[in-house]
Amino acid sequence: MKKLFTSESVSEGHPDKVADQISDSILDALLSQDPDSRVAVETLVTTGLAVISGEVRTNAYVDVQEIARETIRRIGYTKSSYRFDSESCGVIVAIHQQSDDIAQGVDENKESNKSIGAGDQGMMFGYACKETDTYMPLSIQLAHDLVRELAAIRKEGKIMPYLAPDSKSQVTIQNDADGNPTRVDTIVLSTQHDADVSQEQIKKDVREHLFPRVIPSNLLDHDTVMHINPTGKFVIGGPHGDTGLTGRKIIVDTYGGHGAHGGGAFSGKDSTKVDRSAAYAARHIAKNIVAAGLAENCLIQLAYAIGVAEPVSVSVNTYGTGVVDDLKLAEAVRRTFDCTPFGIITRFGLNRPIFTQTAAYGHFGRSEFPWEQLDYTDKIADAVK
């Protein structure tokens, strides 16, 4: 049998990603006025309606309805035929103040910012490998690239003018006995489209214009299977086709099924919520370990107690590829990286409005994000000597 692994991605027009982007746009708007805003906003989108709820504590004021409409407009839902568009959809806002009990645990020692407690309990994971230049698994990297490039083609409006915002991709990679990628075994690509285009035209255009822009030719062969709009039709899509919810694409957001996941979602949460900030810190640690040549693959786990600043545990798993023992590497991580909420927020500047761009096409493997920087390779290499 072939050794296969599959990952999926979805476009910015997928209903769950629409919800994520609305939530993160609200977060960014609040942070732009008050960097100390505490935010946990979640969004539901369905036919003709967006419902925005959650808990906020802030000195800022923003027009939540207008932020939602502008986000929907930017994504591309601007036609009434989509049954969900920026001008006519309803927007219901049900946001209330953050619980005083949670606030007490996070901000009890505000005068000494280093003692800011974690906003919740839980465990977070970060992963890195040497399969790609981004230190991301190849399957999820290609899946992201497909839907991101398809969105770029849609917005250009030239070669595939019939495209609509919703789309999904899936890439299956064949690996050799050592786990190294050798070829693309299967590609699945589903894209929403106008009603007056034939499926034959869509398949032809995807093969001629999309796949060559994204998939390296040396990974394709005559046995590569390509499923393009396999249901035969995808006119009804977006929130009219499926209800979207914030935080429902956690595997798309991370590593496509590689490594592990603690279960917490990211979008709509400020960085005192370690679901988000500690996942970024764990990725930063794992990526710097692999880039430093200390392992071929690396999984970092951080775990927290609500209201407590220091992680309750730090774990390292290099899957047998580490040049030093995993326990020794974990101790070096503890000495090298400040994994308190304050330390993470300070290191990456996470009280800035930088989150809307994370809410589609993955939170990792993109050089524009501060947690993707290779600025600790020398420090972690020195720490294990």
What does this protein look like?
This protein is of the alpha+beta class and 385 residues long. It contains eleven helices and eleven strands. The strands form three sheets. The protein has a four-stranded mixed beta sheet. A four-stranded mixed beta sheet has the order 4-3-2-9. It is flat, with a radius of gyration of 21 Å. The mean pLDDT is 95.
What is the end-to-end distance?
Answer: 42 Å
* Share of helical residues: 25-40%
Query: Total number of β-strand segments?
Result: 11
Rg, Cα atoms, Å: 21 Å
In this structure, how is the largest beta sheet organized?
A: 4 strands, mixed
Strand order of the largest sheet: 1-6-7-8
Proportion in β-strands: 15-25%
The number of helical elements comes to: 11
Unreliable runs? none
Mean pLDDT: 95
Which class of secondary structure composition applies to the elements?
alpha+beta
Order of helices and strands: EHEEHEHEHEEHEHEHHEEHHH
How would you sum up the global shape?
Answer: flat
